[in-house]
């Protein structure tokens, strides 16, 4: 039995990337710091070290720090980082596992926060990766996106990785391609519908994997969409939201919108979902109502307790 199989899944909540970016709304100065090999900063309890024992060259070794690949590592690291920066979270400091985002409206406020963060790291003997520090910038690259306090752009490096991806010859390669493109699904209208046949090919662990003409069409189409990605507006909670939803025979989608400075509605985020076999049997009115219900649930954080408008249909 593998070590991971002996542990219950840690259910500590991880932040989503949009949780981090929406917290930066209105900021003008940014810094991102990254722990150097974050898992090595978490020491294993003395009684548990024996569980990590392995043999090499006729000797037995035990890990003193967190083992790479341990299934609960992300939750443990997030919990530790949340504890270290507890009083700063949501006040100009956001944490996503081993990435810390520092943001403020002025350089003075920003620099004060940077000093506080560095003092915390020093106090807990945590080392930073100097090569990944982004200091005092107008926008920063973070987990595949680039927020600047008003908008979020898709990271060109990560986007190009998907654009240059060759035709998948195995289900593993297809899964990796969908992982790359799925990172940007919040930027893409009807992503679930655009990748309908590609995601269907993953069923049954891909035992009967075969590249088809429909998959080829979707593969090329999603790349075309990626080439022309538009930025997303970071939600401003002082302004009214508009939720637009729609449904088709195979799925549903929605977009949360707000007006920009020119008075035009621009997207905050796109969402989409394939219908299950049961859902596909719904009537069109049921599908449209379901899309509204689902859209409100998807954007519950942004919409709860606020007035907003709903528009349904194409």
UniProtKB/TrEMBL annotation:
Pfam families in the record: RT_RNaseH_2, RVT_1
CDD domains: RT_LTR (cd01647)
Gene3D superfamilies xref list: 3.10.20.370, 3.30.70.270, HIV Type 1 Reverse Transcriptase, subunit A, domain 1
Start and end residues of each Reverse transcriptase domain: 1-147
PANTHER family reported in the protein's UniProt record: POL PROTEIN, RIBONUCLEASE H
Name the record gives this protein: Retrovirus-related Pol polyprotein from transposon
Taxonomic source organism: Nosema granulosis
Gene coding for it: pol_178
